[in-house]
From TrEMBL:
GO terms for molecular function: hydrolase activity. InterPro entries: Calcineurin-like_PHP, Metallo-depent_PP-like. Residues 1-191 form the Calcineurin-like phosphoesterase domain. It comes from the Archaea. This is Metallophosphoesterase. Signal peptide: none annotated. It comes from Methanobrevibacter arboriphilus.
Length: 232
């Protein structure tokens, strides 16, 4: 399966993205937040429906710069909104949560760390997911667990800003440490395009689509994850 991960669109179309989708077989497109730059919310449905013309399944979450109404627009579009829910798709189990931990900028989609942690934990418990791996280390029902968040986990390459400080979410790090997904796709920190490991979890920040960045993730027949950054 070929997955293209993008984030931080900020209301700007990217014609090279359309060309890439036209020229490459992408089974699943994951948009990990900040589709708009504080609106307009109508851009969401327009952008996602245009992406869907290329025949790929689309899963999306809102980011901290996405105002009220963006989640509804994702639901009304040709995408699957995976914010605050768990979705099974082929050999994957995806669980998502949009928004971010608090920032200095007082953006609309921020949550305190306690709310962040309890909200993600609650949706996992509601689906009876105690751990995304069996005691044997095998995936439940052979499916690969993927956590999709806008904010990156704290103290990883994915949350490092220009001055070297780490500004990611402690709650998301805690969820990863407890539930041990195979992959966390995030975004939010524009300058932190990276691939890192947190325990056995691969952490991917695909960078800003607005600046032409994305990440192609291949899940092979043995459930191995192979990731390469692409220029769009």
């Amino acid at each position: 399966m070929n997955i293209l991960a993008i984030s931080d669109v900020h209301g700007n179309e990217n014609n090279k993205l359309y060309s890439y989708l036209n020229d490459n077989k992408i089974d699943l497109l994951i948009v990990s937040g900040d589709i708009t730059n504080f609106g307009p919310v109508d851009f969401v449905e327009y952008f996602i429906n245009k992406l869907s013309e290329y025949g790929t399944e689309i899963f999306a979450i809102p980011g901290n710069c996405d105002p009220d109404g963006v989640e509804r627009k994702i639901i009304d579009s040709n995408a699957v909104c995976i914010h605050n829910t768990v979705i099974e798709y082929e050999n994957l189990v995806l669980y998502g949560f949009g928004g971010s931990n608090p920032t200095p900028f007082d953006t609309p989609g921020e949550f305190d760390e306690d709310t962040f942690y309890k909200s993600i934990k609650a949706v996992l418990e509601s689906k009876n997911i105690d751990s995304v791996k069996e005691p044997t280390g095998e995936f439940p029902h052979g499916k690969i667990p993927i956590l999709v968040t806008h904010a990156p986990p704290k103290d990883t390459e994915a949350d490092k800003i220009a001055d070297g400080s780490h500004v990611g979410s402690e709650a998301i790090r805690r969820i990863i440490e407890e539930y041990k997904p195979s992959l966390n796709i995030c975004g939010h920190i524009h300058e932190a395009m990276s691939m890192d490991m947190l325990g056995d979890t691969v952490i991917i920040n695909p960078g800003m689509l607005e600046e032409g960045h994305g990440c192609l993730i291949e899940v092979d027949k043995n459930n191995n994850i192979i990731a390469n950054f692409v220029k769009l």
